[in-house]
Amino acid sequence: MKLTIIGTGYVGLVTGTCFAEVGHQVICVDKDAAKVKLLQSGGMPIYEPGLEELVKRNVEAKRLSFTNSTEEGVVKSDIIFIAVPTPPQPDGSVDLSFMESVSREIAQSMTGYKVVVDKSTVPVQTGEKVAETIKRYCKARVDFDVVSNPEFLREGFAVEDFMKPDRVVIGVRSQRPVPAMKQVYAPFGAPIIVTDINSAELIKHAANSFLALKISYINAISVICEATGANVQEVANGIGLDARIGRRFLDAGLGFGGSCFPKDLSAFIKISEQLGYDFQLLKEVQRINAEQMNRFIKKIEETLWVLKDKKIGVLGLAFKQNTDDVRLSPAIELCQRLQKEGARLRVYDPRAMEKARAVLRDAEYVNDMNEVAEGCDALIVATEWPEFKKLDLERARKALSHPIMFDGRNLFDCEEMERLGFIYKSVGR
Ligand code: UGA
Q: Is the Cβ atom of 296 under 6 angstroms away from ligand 1?
């Protein structure tokens, strides 16, 4: 099928590339001329495992191309996906100005029936606004359908999640675009759920809020574990094997960050408020998440006492494993708060150092995880990168002025760390 994706951020670029991979003809549109040029010349604006090879392969096969022109994308395709940013505003609500301007541009370029699909994360009832906007600005007076098709991929696992989705949600106002949408997604072999547009939009916010709630729930349990000597990982395993609960997203730690959960929670709370419902439950999820970071910093302060002029090594800057994304990263927040207390930092991340430099200044960036501990008073694990498990612990112990480790992601075994001579503090264990 002929598809256009407007916006080449995480969602847009992965969507376009994976659609091309299964045989569709895809045009990716972006206003950012430098980004389009980079992509046209084989470069990658983001790090996402497996994506670069896939882009290359599909560009070579002439199934995937990049352009600045929305008009070209609209004219040449039957289905147009909108995957533009929907950033947060200071009051927690969502800035929908990109959605609005893209809807207008699509409307102005339409010369025949088109299906316009919203893939960006938006508050419930946005689809109605998109439809109104297109109708208002469409000079050609042609038919169109608006569809809501929320995306559930995780950064760092985006290609894998897109190629093997748990489900595909298609929200529609009429049945007309349903066969085409089913055809687009047929190669992925996932269950397809067809709903009304508002339900589809709500599914996205409800899913992300629920996952954030799961994380805050286990983080709250971790507090009780610390107070009683229980082990949060054992509790998570014990409840997670109940199929009604599930083990995933029950890893206690520094709390959730990134460009999705914090923003989507605020947005969902805000839209609920506008609809007359005070979503206290989700406010508590936010509060527990903030408190988790405070508690971790308190742990560091209680052990090291004065942080001023202490040298601290930090492993991990990305907001999670497998990504170079540092937006609202708990690791960066932790570093900034330690710096505010006067600590001097030596930091390392397998992928996110370049992006971190722009937001975390005055830190010493180290190129090898095994050198981070050199001359430090303590070592912190701030991101759940699996390779940190391969840290040379013997070398780190010798390099530290005193062998103290704070593990914000529970990567190491408590008994093993004590046997190696570390003062080892993790979360909920
Ligand atoms: C999240 C959702 O998982 C995706 O389904 C969704 O499509 C995406 O948001 C989005 O709305 O675009 P993402 O933000 O990429 O994906 O990353 P997650 O893997 O969900 O992790 C979010 C944060 O939660 C990270 O900071 C991670 O460290 C933390 N986390 C995750 C925990 O603290 N504990 C866990 O058990 C799992």
A: no
